[in-house]
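Proteins fold reproducibly. Next comes a concrete instance:

***
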Amino acid sequence: MNISSLQKIRYAYKPKLPTMLRGGVAHICVNEGNVTQSVADQDKIQSLFPNTYGKKEITFQLGKNTSENRKHVIGVILSGGNAPGGHNVICGLYDALKQTNSENVLYGFKGGPSGLLNDDYIIFDDAYIDAYRNTGGFDMIGSGRTKLESEEQFEIVATVCKKHDITAIVIIGGDDSNTNAAVLAEYFVEHNCGIQVIGCPKTIDGDLKNEDIEISFGHDTATKTYSEIVGNIERDANSAKKYWHFAKVMGRSASFVVLEIALQTHPNVTVITEEVIEKKLSLFDVCNVIADSIEKRAALGMNFGMVVIPEGLIEAIPDIGILVQEINDLLAGKKIDVFNALPNWSSKYDYIYGGLSNASKAVFTLMPQSIQQQLCLERDPHGNVQIAFIETEKLISSFVGIELQKRKEAGTYVGKFNPLHHYLGYEGRCAFPSNFDTNYCYSLGYNAFMLIQYGYTGYLSKISNLAKPVEEWVAGGMPITKMMNMEHRHGEEKPVICKAYLDMQAKPYQLFLANRDKWAVETCYRYPGAIQYFGPSALCDCTTMTLQLEHEE
């Protein structure tokens, strides 16, 4: 079967809905639950969101639809990085909208939030929607990282919406995007704009997670994609028996992605950011753990292996974090212009080296020149190092090589160390969504329309009970303010959705911990293979091992 045939078959796939949404929009009623409060800083969050705070959680169920019968004109945007399944959120939203009334209209604003600000849009029709069903990517309307956070921006959005008679906006994005959705919803209520705002939870990193959001969409597909690649590399390593592979994988703050890969593929070493932070492990501590595995395997005649490293590790290691912050300060403001004007790397090196503390000088000196240069690249708009450009996998392997040479000179290590490097990032962001993400995202979009039809605003589309078959999934909504706390960002306190980090007491990490020492020495690789779209539901529709373990009875 060629790719063209697979594409055609995927376009025709009919996503499954939770039982409570299957009767059609005319047969869905709402059940309101308890009032909510924010996870922290309740008084402050309530004062900032007086009109949308403390609303009730809701669940949909089969029954007579009691919502107001009116025409709906809705706008939708994709915000932030790509994640598999985004197109299906829009498809589910569109189908529910049109099932209710064929005269209803869905605007897709192009390029993310900037499309709303620039009034750049497309009006969806059946033909356009059908060309993107069950596909990966965000190319249906594109995405962007513009933040909606100022009153001036809100006024522009309100004006654009009134121009097109739009009465609701659906924002598909991560924690920052949905924080912006909550702020926008509050503004619209305060100013009596008559425009609802609904969010949908997206991020492949998996850190948009709490008691209500069991998993963000795209995480399942991305981790399955990365696990296939890591499994393939492991099989090659076990065949050639002469290379140590170092793979850096997406995930800036939390280690949900690398933990799922570890559970799926059993690499020899998996570095967990949260553990590095908790134990305050230095760069040399991390490299010694890897060197220990290499030395023990070499003693058994196995000079090959697999190491998986999270993208955000470089900011979590204390000595590297201090070094990065010192470089940030040396390149802050107009200092970057002074640095860029220097004629060659030698003079730039001297500029940086001269401004570092003695401890940071020791670390910086040992780094390969390529890593030194990457640490001095242009900062992001917030003045932070752009970690995607830092080849952390090469940095780690170079320091591991230094440690192994010391051990060889001491007579404790007798093997060969030939490192190869990989960065697994964009491969997972636009893959054909797994059946799980296909169904989940379609349900999120369909459910988002139900929230709009019943008049809710400042809510997140919520699908839960996701470790069970689709028929048992539960659809509903939760106020976004429930997930929020106050954080210090860019010199001031701001309300934001509370980011999740790995729970090292939970079953997924404990299973990893119970097997880590064995995997470090023995060859226990698992080869999950490609994402399966056809076959038994237990094979094709299942979610991540992490989610299954978290909800294991």
